Amino acid sequence: MRLLKGSEELFISLDNKLGIANTLRRRADALVLNKQYDETIHVYRQAIKHYRQITDQQENIASCHNGLADAYLGQRKYAQAKFYYSKALKCRQAHLSAEHPAIARSYFSLGRYYYYKGNNNENALLYLKKALEQKKKIYPPDHPSIQCNEQLLKQVEAAGAR
Hints:
The protein has helices spanning 2-14, 17-33, 37-51, 58-74, 78-95, 101-117, 121-138, 144-161. It has 162 residues and is mainly α. It has two domains: 1-86, Serine Threonine Protein Phosphatase 5, Tetratricopeptide repeat; 97-162, no CATH class. The longest helix has 18 residues, at 78-95. The N and C termini lie far apart (42 Å).
């Protein structure tokens, strides 16, 4: 975290807007993994503000929206999580090819959202299957993203069988 803060200061001194935005996003990515959700939300919003000052940053903004959704999901603020997951998916669909891995990530995130929210395994299965189908076209069979997707899909299927 200290290194990210140092690189952010360096990019600020160089007036490198993309460097600042990327560093903020990476810092927020680390914060969400450490379950520091309030700070995560603040830092992603800062990153989005910087990305909006630069052309052609839609995918980076979508990544920030996905990260915001992860933070809200961690806080169990389901309405906000769904809003940002959906926003990330729409942005990615508008600016990326249908086969792009980021779209598969959005499908996976929405499937995970529906599963964690509870009482909606049907939508969870729909999005997780969509993500897995797309990932199998992109990645080799032993790719960690496919394995992670398959594992969550099995959990959702097992939960639905109860």
